């Protein structure tokens, strides 16, 4: 018998992706995605700061917009975020993740900054 995929909302997937990104060492906080996208999500009542979801041909595509802490290597942080987000979302949702695109929007110089 084929495995039935769980029913999970885009909202839950976005929350999972956001927490996976925030849990990655070197991430200072989430950043705003494009304004036009944010406004449409605000009006629709869904979406989370710093996360955009798209349905691709092979699975879900996730865009992550964030700020990193000063002193960390951006390529390593980006790789770690991609791995964390992909693993957590696939584990939670059962859906294939086609891509996790990282958009570094800024660098935080404050040790305690959390957005």
What can you tell me about this protein's structure?
Strands 1, 2, 3 and 4 form a four-stranded mixed β-sheet that branches. Residues 38-46 have low confidence and may be disordered. The chain contains three helices and four strands. The chain has one domain: Cation efflux protein, cytoplasmic domain (Alpha-Beta Plaits, 2-Layer Sandwich), CATH 3.30.70.1350. Helix 3 links the parallel strand 3 (60-69) and strand 4. It is elongated, with a radius of gyration of 14 Å. Helix content is 37%, strand content 27%. It is an alpha+beta fold and 115 residues long. It starts with 9 loop residues before the first helix and ends in a 7-residue tail after the last strand.
Structure summary:
With 115 residues, this protein is α+β, with helices and mostly antiparallel strands.
What's the layout of helices and strands?
Layout: H1 10-22, E1 27-30, H2 35-44, E2 51-55, E3 60-69, H3 74-93, E4 97-108
Parallel strand pairs: 3-4
Antiparallel strand pairs: 1-3, 2-3
Helix pairs in contact: 1-3
């Amino acid at each position: 018998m084929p495995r039935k995929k769980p029913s999970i909302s885009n909202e839950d997937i976005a929350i999972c992706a956001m927490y996976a990104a925030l849990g990655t060492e070197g991430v200072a906080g989430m950043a705003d995605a494009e304004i036009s996208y944010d406004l449409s999500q605000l009006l629709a009542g869904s979406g989370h700061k710093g996360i955009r979801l798209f349905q691709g041909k092979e699975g879900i595509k996730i865009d992550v917009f964030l700020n990193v802490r000063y002193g960390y290597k951006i390529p390593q942080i980006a790789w770690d975020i991609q791995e964390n987000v992909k693993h957590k979302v696939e584990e939670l949702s059962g859906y294939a993740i086609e891509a996790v695109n990282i958009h570094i929007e800024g660098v935080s110089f404050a040790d305690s900054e959390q957005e």
